[in-house]
Amino acid sequence: MNFLTRFADSGPTVHVAPATDFTIAGVHITNSMILGWAVCIFIAISLTMLARRVTMRPKGGVVQYVEAGVQFAIDLVENAFEDKAIARKYVPFFVTLFFFILLNNWSGLIPGVGDGVQIHGHPLLRPLTADLNLTIIMGVITMIVVYAASIREAGGLGKYVRHFFIGSLLNPLFLVIGIIEMITDLTRAFSLALRLFLNMAIGEIVIAVFAYLGGLLAPGSLLSPVVALPFTLLELGVGALQAYIFVILAVNYLAISVNSAHSHDDLTEEGSPETIGASVAQGAEG
Predict the structure, then answer these.
(1) Inter-axis angle of helices 188-217 and 172-186, to 10 degrees?
(2) How many domains does the structure of the chain reveal?
């Protein structure tokens, strides 16, 4: 919903669940899916064109903002890892994820998205990130990538699972804490999805309510979009913030497991009999 939202006399119309615009071979195509596909096509075309304009010398216009966004996402990933070489392997995924979420969040503010244009009594278009079904899919895919990368960087499933347990498995306390950590880890996909969905859906509702209040103060005037405009601008910041939060959490989920696995390997090597024997020998020679 945006400042072009139309309201009934009884109050603002709030749409939380996606609605079917049309059906193809028994498959329901929802309003959020259509806008999500449109954003994907826009990202693919625009970023490909902008990438060809990138040069060693900084350029003005849109290119400089895209470069700033990419560099911000790169620094975000690299700063989370102890080993920068490992971080660079996953930069493309997280940079893509950041821009995908950011532009889908902002797509809800485009005039015509929301109740401004309706079909069959519901909005023709709604932002992808305001659809719980699709944010859950995004959360699950993100965590699958994180788990797969964590297992690979840890050197196997066993070593990855071991990083949940901070002490000896013979200690019941450490065993219980490790199991709780594993269960908590499995809920991360849903926490990512719910956080993104709720923030974007609530933003839609806030804009709708204040646009409706503006219409009540001066029916038939342009006061409605004026009252909703500050909250629409605020949603630009909220959309960027939610993209940042989603990506930084996903990055840290991966970085924590990778850094922990490498730290465990280093401690194991330092505490091995060969390392201890070499240290004792050096001390004796000294």
Answers:
(1) 40
(2) 1
